[in-house]
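Tokens for chain A. Residues wanted.
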């Protein structure tokens, strides 16, 4: 079904096409899977971690294996307290920017445009353009007022401002996603493979470019002192220092691949501080950083 509609802010009409699908076998709603980090679930996670002795993690010799055991224990308790659930996402309706004065100006503009279309008079064209400008300015004023009210009524002003900015940026996004990449005549479509190739390219491009350059025949004098001016020593950390760092973290609910947000870490500080101290000290002693934390 197709209908012709008025665009209101343009001098062109639009066409609205509706497709009716009688196949009801596929749901039309969006379903995503994720953990449920409610206050009750986080407190349950804290209670479960209180019962952990971290024997497997403490018994490991390397920082790598200690971190792996730590994450296995933590993930096991996360699956119990905050299991992955499938939840239905409903699309929120955008608030309408509308008032009675805007309706009057819109109707006046449409009437003037129809008059110009029928008569073709230059004066009617000027009148239609004036009314369209009045309508556009009033609509712009309402949008500014709505944004100002949204920021004013928000508890977090900075977050509200960035939400408006990101919304405008997403509306203007042209959708230039990279779906394919041609590498030496071979087409790559896997997003992970494309990412790995781009990371490898930008990491090695400097050395590869320098290798192709010819060295000048002029001998450059060596001016740097090769002697070691000093040494760097790390003292082992303790529970007090790690607890102090955790307490200074901002209480954010966003998490990385390990699914641990700063809010969860701060809530379970007493339960997590000891295994974290053991992993950090092993890492400093052995000079090894857990590979699962090395993410590009």
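Reply:
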């Amino acid at each position: 079904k197709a209908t012709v509609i008025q665009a209101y802010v343009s001098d062109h009409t639009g066409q609205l096409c509706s497709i009716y699908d009688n196949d009801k076998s596929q749901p039309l709603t969006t379903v995503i899977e994720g953990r449920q980090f409610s206050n009750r679930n986080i407190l349950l996670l804290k209670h479960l971690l209180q019962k952990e002795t971290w024997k497997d993690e403490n018994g490991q010799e390397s920082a790598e294996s200690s971190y792996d055991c730590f994450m296995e224990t933590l993930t096991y308790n996360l699956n119990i307290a905050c299991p992955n659930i499938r939840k239905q996402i409903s699309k929120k309706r955008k608030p309408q920017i509308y008032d009675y004065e805007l309706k009057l100006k819109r109707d006046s503009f449409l009437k003037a445009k129809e008059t110009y279309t029928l008569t073709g008079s230059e004066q009617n064209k000027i009148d239609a353009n004036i009314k369209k400008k009045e309508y556009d300015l009033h609509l712009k004023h309402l949008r500014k007022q709505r944004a100002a009210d949204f920021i004013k009524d928000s508890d977090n002003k900075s977050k509200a401002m960035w939400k408006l900015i990101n919304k405008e940026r997403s509306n203007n996004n042209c959708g230039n996603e990279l779906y394919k990449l041609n590498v030496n005549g071979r087409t790559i479509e896997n997003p992970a493979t494309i990412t790995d190739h781009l990371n490898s390219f930008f990491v090695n491009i400097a050395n590869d470019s320098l290798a192709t350059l010819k060295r000048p025949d002029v001998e450059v004098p060596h001016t740097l002192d090769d002697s070691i001016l000093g040494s760097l020593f790390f003292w082992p950390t303790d529970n007090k220092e790690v607890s102090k760092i955790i307490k200074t973290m901002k209480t954010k609910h966003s998490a990385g691949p390990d699914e641990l947000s700063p809010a969860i870490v701060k809530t379970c500080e007493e339960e997590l501080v000891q295994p974290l101290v053991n992993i950090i000290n092993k890492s400093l002693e052995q000079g090894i950083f857990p590979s699962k934390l090395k993410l590009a």
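The first strand starts at residue 2 and ends at 6. The chain has a mean pLDDT of 84.
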